[in-house]
Design brief:
This protein has helices at residues 21-24, 28-42, 44-47, 72-81, 97-103, 122-133, 137-140; strands at residues 2-7, 10-16, 51-56, 85-90. It has 141 residues and is an alpha+beta fold. The termini are far apart.
């Protein structure tokens, strides 16, 4: 999922997150609704108390506030949207390129690269060598 918070046509911040496994098999309607609610929760400090517009490339979400809520998923997501002052407008996917780019995952390569990193405490080795070389240090050992 991907979202952009913008003001006066200028992007302010971006949000991108992969869907959980359960949502990967859900309908596009539910995934879009989930993306909207996740973005609104992420940016609630900017959105609460203000009227804002949600631009979506899913045409049926445009009528979200006038639709009959039929599924438990719709109830859950709609309850998260209560308290916000918003309107929803449809914008085709081709004109919503930034959000479309955020929602695309890069292709997974079949071969994974794993790197093992081990800390090397050269500072401690140098300190020990300098202390051993110092004549007063030998008294305290």
């Amino acid at each position: 999922m991907g979202a952009v918070l913008s003001q006066q046509g200028h992007p302010i911040t971006f949000f991108s997150k992969p869907f959980i496994a359960k949502l990967l098999w859900s309908s596009t309607y539910v995934r879009e609704l989930c993306a909207i609610t996740m973005a609104m929760c992420k940016w609630c400090q900017y959105l609460l108390g203000r009227c804002f517009t949600i631009l979506t490339d899913h045409r049926s979400l445009k009528e979200l506030l006038s639709q009959v809520i039929q599924t438990p998923e719709q109830h859950m997501y709609m309850s998260r949207l209560m308290g916000y002052d918003y309107n929803i407008q449809y914008r085709s996917g081709s004109t919503n390129q930034v959000v479309d780019g955020l929602s695309r995952l890069p292709k997974q390569h079949s071969m994974l690269t794993m790197i093992l990193s081990i800390p090397c405490f050269s500072f401690l080795k140098e300190l020990r060598a300098q202390l051993d070389a110092h004549h007063d240090y030998g008294q305290f050992r």
